[in-house]
Write a structure and sequence with these properties.
This protein has one domain: Alpha-Beta Barrel (TIM Barrel). Helix content is 38%, strand content 15%. It has helices at residues 43-55, 73-86, 114-128, 147-159, 173-185, 208-215, 243-246, 258-273, 278-287, 302-309, 319-330, and strands spanning 16-18, 25-27, 29-32, 60-62, 94-99, 133-138, 163-169, 190-194, 218-222, 292-297. An 8-stranded parallel beta barrel has the order 3-4-5-6-7-8-9-10, surrounded by 5 helices. Bound molecules: NADP nicotinamide-adenine-dinucleotide phosphate.
Length: 331
């Protein structure tokens, strides 16, 4: 029996923000399938995370060719949930995927050639059982491939109907400005940029957010919770069911230093004064930037998604709070 979505899921129109100067609106929180949706993960949990998100008004699900493990399996999992539960709701969903990181052997299995991007997109569509994705990204800039070729492949994906919009991820300010110009010239404007942005990662503030505003490109901040560090998850050690304990490919226990924990404890205290959890304050902080359309979260539990969506009840900061945050981060 397919899931029956909550009838009230669009009750709050304030949950959506326009993506740059495009016609597309995205939810303030989007769900990423980097962790917890692979072939090694529990399917019932993955399904519950997607369906609860959708019931709470989250319409955007972000994937990439290599999400798993094994690589590709998150797209397979998502395709199954889509087919079995959400087939009738495809037009309510924004589904993205990306190409650029290592996917298959040989010289064409990664980076930014036309060969890699277009073959990878076909593979992603086959795994998800879709004729098109809503957003197709170049996952990272390729120093060895002309930017014209990579952007030309994105534009081709859009013109061929296999993607509705084009995006870039992990491009710096200068690369983004050039990519935007090329895509505009090709008649397929850059919809969105996906940078890493959170309280401990401020690089986008040094030029990139200005480029996004100037070019009318939406920003979707990935890892807004620093993979769980900017929550109460690690305040009392490393729980056995946490990412750092059971899947430390990217968040390693040695990253959780006493120095960092000292700042996290102070941020947690400040969040409590605001009447929020640290996760909620961290999401609100990312979304305070007008250039950021959406915060792209991950989750391992339905309760985390519910807590994070409740962050949207208080997105404003007074100047004293912002100053206090800066002084905590400065140590
Ligand atoms: N473009 C790129 O290069 C790139 C790179 C990385 C990620 N991304 C995208 O960004 C998405 C999100 O990345 P991420 O999963 O690292 O994001 P994140 O939101 O920073 O971290 C998610 C993790 O934080 C913990 N968490 C979330 N809400 C919580 C809460 N309320 N209380 C306590 N803990 C909470 C969970 O960890 P536990 O598992 O420990 O419970 C969860 O798995 C990815 O899925 C992907 O779509 C893109």
């Amino acid at each position: 029996m397919p899931h029956q979505p909550a009838p009230q899921r669009y009750a709050n129109p304030a949950l959506y923000r326009r993506c740059g100067r495009s016609g597309l609106q995205l939810p303030l929180l989007s769900l990423g399938l980097w962790h917890n949706f692979g072939g090694v993960d529990d399917f019932a949990t993955s399904r519950a995370l997607i369906l609860r998100s959708f019931d709470l008004g989250i319409t955007h699900f972000d994937l990439a060719n290599n999400y798993g493990p094994p690589p590709g399996s998150a797209e397979t999992t998502f395709g199954k949930i889509l087919r079995e539960d959400l087939a009738a709701h495809r037009d309510e969903l924004i589904i993205s995927t990306k190409a650029g990181y290592l996917m298959w052997d040989g010289p064409y299995g990664e980076w930014g050639s036309r060969k890699n991007l277009l073959a990878s997109l076909d593979q992603s569509l086959a795994r998800m059982g879709l004729p098109y994705v809503d957003i197709f990204y170049s996952h990272r800039p390729d120093p060895a491939t002309p930017l014209e070729e990579t952007m030309g492949a994105l534009a081709h994906a859009v013109r061929s109907g296999k993607a509705l919009y084009a995006g870039v991820s992990n491009y710096n300010a200068e690369q983004t400005a050039r990519a935007a110009q090329i895509l505009r010239d090709l008649g397929t404007p850059c919809l969105i940029h996906q940078p890493k942005y959170h309280l401990f990662e401020r690089t986008p503030e040094r030029g990139l957010l200005d480029v996004l505003t100037r070019e009318g490109i939406g920003g979707i901040a990935f890892c807004p919770l620093a993979q769980g560090l900017l929550t109460n998850r690690y305040l009392a050690g490393i729980p056995a069911d946490s990412r750092a304990a059971h899947d430390p490919r990217f968040l390693k226990p040695e990253h959780i230093t006493e120095e960092k924990l000292g700042k996290i404890r102070k941020l947690d205290a400040l969040a409590k004064v605001r009447g929020q959890s640290l996760a909620q304050m961290s999401l609100a902080w990312v979304l305070r930037q007008p250039a950021i359309t959406s915060a792209l979260i991950g989750a391992s539990k339905v309760s985390q998604i519910e807590e994070n969506v409740a962050a949207l009840n208080n997105l404003t900061f007074n100047p004293a709070e912002l100053t206090a945050i800066e002084s905590i981060l400065a140590g």
